[in-house]
Fold Molybdate ABC transporter permease.
Amino acid sequence: MGFSTVRQIDGFRACLLFISFFITALLMLAIGSLFAVPELTDIWKSLKSEEMRFALRLSLITGSASTVLVMLFALPIGYTLSRFEFRGKRLVKTICDLPVAFPELVLGLCLLMLFGNTFVGKLFQLMGLNFVFTRQGVVVAQFFTALPYAIRIMKSTFDYISPRLEFVSRSLGYTQFETVRHVTLPLAKNGLTAATVISFARCIGTFGTVLILAGGSHMQTEVLPTALYLNISYGNMGMALTSGMVLVVVSFIAIFIFEKADVSL
């Protein structure tokens, strides 16, 4: 390797590093500006307000419920897409991934049309479940927004686990369910952790889907992103910025745990 080649490689490496650090610095400045603008007294006052405590409590309750539901469905769907070959598999995978590409507002509109005055909506209403402009709708909106991410993580996790270990277990007389329970799931614990954390963060941060399906009623269906939106509309920047800070902190913790789990999408 000649001297000129080495210089070209160093130049190429320096260019890539510059781009990486430049974009990272811009993001840090953008996020830091959110924390730099308000005064601590305003933040503390906003955190103690009845509206903020309601939004935070509702976000945690609905986010936790949605995350449990997401994982209950993402785990079997991810395993199915990873291990089984069947007709229509590509279609199922495409449809499951579709909400990732959808704007949240479009997904919310689809859910509003489905659970509104239709056969499906009336069927759920007979069971005592009304998802339109209710807190139950918040959970449904968060569920359908976060589910595709959890499915992708679980499928990727199962893809990395060698099927040979499951074959050995089956050859020793264990059923497929016992094999999944005692062999596959313990090996997938990092993926389970990552999918749970990312799902919770997506549920907490869901805005457009919640706004369309559950509405943005003050202290009725008001989760943290809705509180941010409503307070910007009212011109109450202290409350809006505090809502944004809480969401950033939740997202940072989620990404940190996700990186520690070392699972790729």
Remarks:
- Residues 194 and 235 are 37 Å apart (CA to CA).
- The mean pLDDT is 88.
